[in-house]
Amino acid sequence: MRDDDTTNTMNATNATTRRDFLRVSAVAGAGLLLGGCSTDRSSSGADSTRGAESAHGSAAAADVLPGPADVTLRIAPVLVELAPDHIISTVGYNGSVPAPVIRLREGKPVSVQLVNDTDTPELVHWHGQLIPSNIDGALEEGTPFVPPHGSRRYTLTPRPAGTRWVHTHAFSGSDTHRGMYTGQFGIVYIEPANEPGGYDQEVFLATHEWEPFFGAQEMGTDAEVWPQGPVPKPPPSSRPNGYEVGYKSFSINGKALGHGEPVRVKRGQRVMFRILNASATENIQLAHPRHLCEIVPLDGNPVATPKKGSVLALGVAERIDAIVEMNHPGVWILGTPHDDDRRDGMGIVVEYSDATGAPRWIAPPKEAWDYTRFGTTQAIAAPDETIPMKFGKINGGKDGFNQWTINGELFEHSTPIQIGLGRRYRLSFENLADDPHPVHLHRHTFELVSVNGKATSGVMKDVIVVPGFGRVDVDFVANNPGPTLFHCHQTLHMDFGFMRLFKYGG
């Protein structure tokens, strides 16, 4: 990337943790736009979706707008050249993976044209934006599909400012050629009305994993990154663990480490890295040897207390904006601390001007990730209501795959949770298994209240990793009417039961 490249084209692939699983034998093969599949998550889930859509009536229909669209998102097959001898055939947006960065202005309405050049219905989710449910991009909320070889047109008003993204919300299930296993994602940067500045160069990075396969070995828990919490561990299940996902190759901005253009910097620069974990299932870590990263926003939202660290931890769908002072000239690898994943592509070269030689990697110190250090000790207002949400796991519950429950119910057997406009709700998460869950609330921003009993305030997010056996509390204000989806952002968990719908009362 060049020094003046403020609209970098992102191409992404995720490398990730859980390295012990990557070598397990496979049991199955492996403007912006999104792709998906033609199958609902479940029959009863589809029924509840139809109810949500009918509740909106004509609002679910696309607007009829004159003239050309401000943003055109074209979903179509694309080839991703991870390396000259390693090419992936997938589906992407506007001819690249990831899509070219979309820059919008906060509060300025834009018209969007979605064009589907594939043979399957598609959904486009505008992750992190506070927009109506009929255009949010989730079938469960009543958003209509973009039909095969068809299109859809509507307007949206971008908000809030910050690093958001766009991605498919189509069902994958056991098909690793669908949904988020593909290249259907891209960064959306919503510029604030008044850009504060404070950096010399802006670099967008998106991570992703490739060539997924299913295996029966239980995956790691990332407990060294997201420390496990105080929830008592249940007795071992009598059923073996179901299939998990592994990957053969990884990338940042659509290239494996050592291929593609490096990030080019100059000594003394302050570089803003806007990083997205666009993985289907994997939480990740990244480090830039001998450089500290000052985390300023999380999920696009400025933190109450910016902090510096050696290692960045991103759950699936999380974003981190970090400023790095370029004060150690050389040719460096910005990549995962996990050696196997880095060798398989999870990294990118950062090259100082006039520097020569092979890229260097130095392992960073191990650091546990603590969201609360970005907050304050200021007291948070008491909620109007607390909603307990216990996350469970059914080993091998369906066709050899694990199933995931909220309060003992799979999504297809659940009823929507009723909420009232203007009320403040506390979601009290309790993880009854050892898997860390990056959970996401659509169309709202929530405030972190506590992690494993440690209180905080001032940390605003739309995704948070609930550690294994952990407890996390978040608050949100019900201020965006319409069906609202909550789910684990690991595709495998979401597709096998880990979702719940919030519904505003009349």
Describe the structure.
This protein is mainly β and 506 residues long. The chain folds into three domains: 19-191, Cupredoxins -  blue copper proteins (Immunoglobulin-like); 203-371, Cupredoxins -  blue copper proteins (Immunoglobulin-like, Sandwich); 385-504, Cupredoxins -  blue copper proteins (Immunoglobulin-like, Sandwich), CATH 2.60.40.420. Helix content is 6%, strand content 40%. The chain is built from four helices and 31 strands. A hairpin with a 2-residue loop joins strand 14 (293-298) and strand 15 (301-309). The longest helix has 14 residues, at 43-56.
Quick take:
The chain is mainly beta and 506 residues long. Helices cover 6% and strands 40% of the residues. β20 (385-398) and β21 (401-406) form a beta hairpin.
Secondary-structure map:
Layout: H1 43-56, E1 71-83, E2 86-93, E3 102-105, E4 110-116, E5 124-127, H2 133-136, E6 151-156, E7 162-168, E8 185-191, E9 201-215, E10 244-252, E11 263-265, E12 270-277, E13 284-287, E14 293-298, E15 301-309, E16 311-314, E17 319-325, E18 331-335, H3 339-343, E19 347-352, E20 385-398, E21 401-406, E22 417-419, E23 424-431, E24 437-441, E25 446-451, E26 454-455, E27 460-461, E28 463-466, E29 471-477, E30 484-488, H4 491-495, E31 499-504
Parallel strand pairs: 1-4, 3-8, 9-12, 11-19, 20-23, 22-31
Antiparallel strand pairs: 1-2, 4-6, 5-7, 7-8, 9-10, 12-17, 13-16, 14-15, 14-17, 18-19, 20-21, 23-29, 24-28, 24-30, 25-26, 25-27, 25-29, 30-31
